[in-house]
Write a structure and sequence with these properties.
Elements: E1 2-11, E2 14-21, E3 32-37, H1 43-55, E4 69-71, E5 77-79, E6 93-101, E7 107-115, E8 129-134, E9 139-140, H2 145-156, H3 160-166, E10 168-170, H4 171-179, H5 182-193, H6 197-224, H7 231-312, H8 314-372, H9 384-415, H10 417-485, H11 488-496, H12 517-572, H13 579-669, H14 678-732, H15 740-799, H16 805-830, E11 834-838, E12 845-849, E13 855-858, H17 864-882, E14 890-894, H18 902-916, E15 921-926, H19 929-934, E16 938-943, E17 949-954
Parallel strand pairs: 3-15, 3-16, 10-14, 14-15
Antiparallel strand pairs: 1-2, 1-6, 4-5, 6-7, 7-8, 8-9, 11-12, 12-13, 16-17
């Protein structure tokens, strides 16, 4: 994974569009570069833009833990941890854009943007947007922001946490890590490596053990509240239950006998009351029977009187029936005549409508003809014969036009236009091909000349580079020896030397530099200056050589592409003469084609005129036919209308005769039977006779019903008398019948008390059974819970704790060993003198000094520069640990150099130069002046007025 370019606009202190392109000079050839500037100028904004474009997050908001809303423009508010806070105040939009090389070898571009409503400074902030594009295939990724962020993680190969521990390194965490206590070191290591799961496991085990113990205690409490009856009390309750059951059965039997006696007393009283009621009812029925007999006699007399009246109206009924037959016969003829008259009138009306429609069609056809002939404004319209003469004249003109147009078409066909156009296209392609060949030949000659110049210049640079590298190796050996001679430990040993005593290092008794420390320092500075000059010269020659080789490869690529294009163009051509001949022929073809197009336009114009004339003639011919047909329809309609009017007059006369006869018969019939029909009169008589017969039958039934009721009452009264005698005999056998209700009430109370006592005993016995089953079930559950609690207790004893520290320290010990393995690998490149080692049984660190016979030293004895080297090695070790075997070619180190003295800063620079040789491009963010001066390629951020900063790349 490699960062290729960073672009941003209107973020924090940087206003406008800014670009840092690592694929163009001087950043392309520089292995190490500095991002320098004053405090607050906006150096870290570049890294914020990098993280925004790739992860929609910014490192500076990582420490924000409180959810606090801040005032934005107008009445709007924004959370203090919202990354949109990076948009510069007073601007309407901004973005962050990063080009990078993915793990699949493709180049990608991620574009993060934020804007205010309508891009106005006073608008409210809108949600940020994200766009991802494959630069090699020009394919744009689709999906929501969350889906695009997930795809970016796959393309980069690192999550945000891994990215900030692999590509962005902060030294302060590892300086603290070196000298912190065990628990703090475990917590810090947990944060750096992202292995917080071990603390969570320890806390979860502690919580589950606590919950399991609480469950066991809860089960014990549940068992303690369940009460069981003692065995002796249980036997006594069962015996008492048996006695109460027998007593309840005897009480129920006695109560049933008493209820039976009470029923006998009550039945006797009811039967005596019923006998009195039946006697009263018998007297009422006798009165009712007398009234029914009187009504029966009256109904029989009324029926006889009605039959005498019916015999008197028989002659009128016969005459009325004869008149009804005659009226019905005339009525049928009247209806038939009326229908025929209506049908004749409807036919006349329909024919008149047809007549009007045919006349309108004829007038419409004449109007259409006049419109076609432009004769609409004239008082006298053209007659049909005149129109036919005009039609023949138009058809003659059409024939002449068609013949002239056919002659033009023959002239067009004689040109052979398709072959002319095809020849023009071929010649145009050949002329273009010959021009391209000439231009490519010139480009090839220029590229060949440039390649020869670059090859000579590259060979010279390579020769100079070999010589300079040889000189640099010699000076470097002198410089390393001199640096060791002026080291702090060597100086301390030299100051302890005494004349005449043997040196513990070389064994010599002569110490010429014991007193001349100033000479040694001067000599070291001269050698150091010579080494720096040689290293700078070597770097410049190397950069120049790389640039020349790149330009040479580019020119060879151009030459190869030109040769390929020439070969393709030379194969495609055909023999068409020189460029001048082709041009002359193209001009001739253009003239012929122009003449053809003019003639073709003339033919099209005349063809349109012929088509219009043909359509006009066809319309005239069609309208003439319509007029003739309309005239025939009008004539036929007039004849049919006259015939239908004669028929309608005849039907009108016949209908008047029938109507007069029918009125006379109706007048004579209206005086008979009060105008009613014979059938209606007979029906009225039948209904009246039926009503009288029904009333007579009803009176007879009423008499029979009353007589039957009296017979039934006599039978019931006999049965009641027998029942009263029987009940009176039974009552004589009952003692004190008037006290039976009170006796029954007392017996019911005694039975109820017995039932209550029995229910109480049965409830206690049933509860005993339930409690016993519950105790057995809880005991079984207790065994299971105790088994689980014992397992959690053992696990809690090993790794469980409330704060998660116990398992965290154990787990981070293994993580620390893995981290030290990677860190020592990087430390061997930075300084072969030291190795990091874990203090056995703890998370503390110690240092092995290889130059002092593998002496074990505490980390507190390290100097500032040595601490920086080991901190940097730890940071790089974490980078290797987090990169998942991914090759990361870009590295940004943010600050960490401000507290170093001059010697430690020199050591740090040497370490970074060693790191550069491993193939990484390193960006150092620092405001330390001396460090910025030693790095030739710089991205400088300069503060201006109004909180604005500008960015320049120098080198």
């Amino acid at each position: 994974m490699k960062i290729l370019a960073i672009r941003l606009k209107n973020l924090t202190s940087i206003e406008g569009v800014v670009e840092v392109d690592f694929t163009s000079e001087p950043l392309q050839s520089a292995g190490i570069f500095a991002i320098s500037g004053a405090t607050g100028a906006g150096k870290s904004t570049l890294l914020d833009a990098l993280c925004l474009a790739l992860y929609d997050k910014a490192p500076r908001f990582a420490v924000s833990v409180e959810s606090v809303n801040l005032a934005d423009v107008g009445d709007n508010q924004i959370n203090q941890s919202d990354v949109r806070n990076l948009l510069r105040r007073g601007t309407g939009d901004g973005y962050a854009e990063v080009d990078f090389l993915g793990i699949d070898g493709h180049r990608y571009r991620s574009h993060w943007s934020v804007r205010r409503t309508r891009n106005k400074v006073s608008g409210s902030l809108q949600p940020q947007a994200l766009e991802v594009k494959d630069l090699d295939t020009e394919k744009e990724f689709q999906g929501t922001k969350k889906e695009l962020l997930a795809q970016l993680v796959e393309l980069i190969g690192l999550t945000y946490e891994q990215f900030t521990r692999t590509v962005l390194l902060a030294q302060n965490d590892f300086a603290t890590f070196l000298k912190s206590k065990g628990a703090a070191k475990a917590e810090l290591l947990e944060k750096l490596t992202g292995t917080a799961v071990y603390s969570q496991i320890s806390q979860e085990i502690f919580a589950r053990n606590k919950a399991a113990q609480e469950e066991v205690a809860l089960i014990h409490n549940r068992m303690s509240v369940i009460e069981l009856i003692p065995e002796e009390e249980l036997l006594a309750l069962q015996k008492e239950k048996k006695i109460l059951v027998e007593k309840r059965a005897a009480g129920i039997k006695l109560l049933a006998e008493q209820n039976t006696q009470l029923n006998v007393v009550r039945s006797l009283k009811m039967q005596e009351e019923l006998r009195k009621k039946k006697q009263t009812e018998e007297q009422g029925k006798q009165v009712k029977l007398k009234g029914a007999m009187e009504r029966l006699v009256s109904q029989e007399e009324g029926l006889l009187h009605f039959k005498a009246q019916w015999e008197a109206i028989q002659p009128d009924l016969k005459k009325a029936r004869q008149l009804d037959v005659q009226i019905q016969s005339q009525q049928d003829g009247y209806v038939q005549a009326k229908q025929m008259l209506q049908a004749a009138c409807d036919q006349v009306t329909g024919q008149e409508k047809k007549m009007r429609t045919a006349t309108e069609h004829l007038q419409s056809s004449y109007q259409s003809l006049n419109r076609l002939l432009n004769h609409t404004g004239v008082e006298e319209p053209l007659q049909l014969e005149q129109v036919e003469i005009i039609l023949r004249q138009e058809e003659e003109k059409l024939t002449i036009g068609i013949k002239a147009n056919e002659e033009r078409l023959e002239r067009l066909n004689s040109f052979g236009y398709p072959s002319l156009a095809e020849e023009q296209v071929k010649l145009q392609k050949e002329w273009t091909r010959q021009q391209n060949i000439r231009q490519l030949t010139e480009t090839k000659a220029k590229a060949k000349t440039e390649i020869e110049r670059l090859e000579k210049e590259t060979a010279g640079c390579l020769k100079q580079l070999a010589e300079q590298e040889s000189t640099l190796k010699t000076v470097q050996r002198l410089y390393e020896n001199a640096r060791m001679a002026v080291g702090r430990d060597v100086k301390a040993l030299r100051q302890q030397l005494q004349e005449g005593e043997a040196c513990p290092v070389c064994g010599s008794t002569s110490h010429p530099y014991h007193r001349e420390q100033g000479v040694v320092d001067t000599l070291f500075r001269n050698i150091e200056q010579e080494y720096n000059v040689a290293a700078t010269a070597c770097q410049q020659i190397n950069n120049r050589t790389i640039a020349l080789q790149r330009d040479l490869a580019h020119q060879k690529t151009i030459e190869r592409q030109v040769c390929e294009q020439l070969a393709v163009l030379q194969k495609e051509g055909f023999d068409a003469g020189s460029e001048e001949q082709i041009r002359h022929r193209l001009e001739e073809l253009a003239k012929l084609i122009l003449e053809y197009r003019g003639l073709y336009a003339e033919w099209q114009h005349s063809d349109e005129a012929v088509k219009k004339m043909r359509a006009h003639c066809e319309a005239l011919r069609e309208n003439v036919s319509f007029c003739r047909l309309a005239m025939q329809k009008v004539s036929s309609a007039k004849e049919q209308l006259a015939t239908l009017q004669n028929v309608a007059n005849s039907e009108q006369k016949r209908f008047a005769t029938i109507e007069k006869t029918l009125d006379a018969l109706r007048q004579e019939r209206s005086v008979l039977l009060k105008g009613k029909s014979a059938d209606e009169a007979e029906a009225a008589v039948a209904r009246k006779e039926k009503e009288l017969n029904l009333a007579l039958d009803q009176a007879r039934k009423e008499v029979e019903t009353v007589q039957n009721c009296l017979s039934g009452l006599h039978g019931e009264m006999k049965q009641i008398a027998l029942a009263v005698e029987e009940l009176q005999e039974q009552c004589k056998q009952i003692e004190f019948p008037e006290q039976l209700p009170e006796t029954i009430r007392k017996q019911q109370e005694e039975n109820l008390n017995t039932e209550r006592s029995l229910s109480t005993i049965e409830a206690r016995l049933l509860q005993q059974v339930k409690n016993k089953a519950t105790v057995e079930m809880i005991a079984k559950e207790l065994v299971e819970k105790q088994s689980v609690a014992e397992r959690w207790a053992k696990l809690n004893k090993l790794i469980g704790s409330a704060d998660g520290a116990k398992f965290k320290i154990i787990a981070q010990s293994y993580t620390l060993n893995l981290l030290l393995l990677h860190a020592n690998k990087h430390l061997s490149y930075l300084s072969k003198r030291y190795k990091l080692q874990q203090v056995p049984g703890t998370l503390a660190l110690q240092v092995i000094d290889c130059d002092m016979c593998d002496e074990v030293r505490t980390v507190y004895s390290l100097s500032g520069g040595e601490s920086f080297l080991i901190s940097l090695a730890l940071a790089l070790g974490l980078s290797s640990l987090s990169s998942n075997n991914l090759k990361v070619e870009s590295l940004f180190i943010d600050e960490g150099f401000g507290s170093l003295d001059a010697e430690s800063l020199r050591t740090a620079m040497e370490a970074l130069e060693q790191l550069q040789m491993q193939g990484r491009k390193i960006g150092v963010i620092s405001h330390v002046q001396e460090m910025s001066e030693r790095i030739s390629v710089q991205v400088q951020v300069h503060k201006k007025v109004n909180g604005k900063s500008v960015l320049t790349v120098v080198g």
